[in-house]
Specification:
The chain is α+β, with helices and mostly antiparallel strands. 23% of the residues lie in helices and 39% in strands. It is built from three helices and eight strands; from the N terminus they run E-H-E-E-E-H-E-H-E-E-E. It comes from Alkalibacillus salilacus.
Length: 132
């Protein structure tokens, strides 16, 4: 693990929340992107070597919509930057760590991403990110 790539925060509306992170907190807005593999619209804000990722559901079937319905808006996951996501997944699987994804899929910025099951870390959802 190289660093925390980002902290994902589930929100109902990017348009309502972007001004807070950009104008009130003073974080550098890096733009918005649609991530079809996760059914979300995301906005990124740079903070040091990491980022804050706001996640807005694209539909009621989106995992983020279901998360917001169950737990409300707030911190959804912590993402780690890794050099080789598949190698890391293979290692974790061999150690008996429960995974949501055994193979990476395309995430924001064309990165390769995969999630560990929250049962692996007492309810904390971790994402592995390999930048393009």
């Amino acid at each position: 693990m190289n660093k925390i790539a980002h902290i994902g925060i589930a929100v109902k509306s990017l348009d309502e929340m972007i001004p807070f992170y950009r104008d009130q907190l003073g974080l550098t807005f890096e733009g918005k992107e649609q991530v079809n593999s996760e059914q979300v619209h995301v906005a990124f804000f740079k903070i040091g070597e990491s980022a804050i990722e706001l996640l807005e559901p694209l539909s009621e079937e989106s995992p983020i919509a279901k998360y917001i319905e169950k737990k409300g808006e707030g911190i959804h996951h912590i993402a780690f930057d890794v050099d080789d996501v598949q190698k890391r997944l293979n290692h974790l699987k061999s150690e008996g760590i429960p995974l949501i994804h055994e193979k990476p899929k395309t995430g924001a910025h064309d990165s390769q991403v995969a999630f560990l099951h929250p049962k692996a870390a007492n309810g904390v959802l971790f994402e592995l990110c390999q930048q393009k």
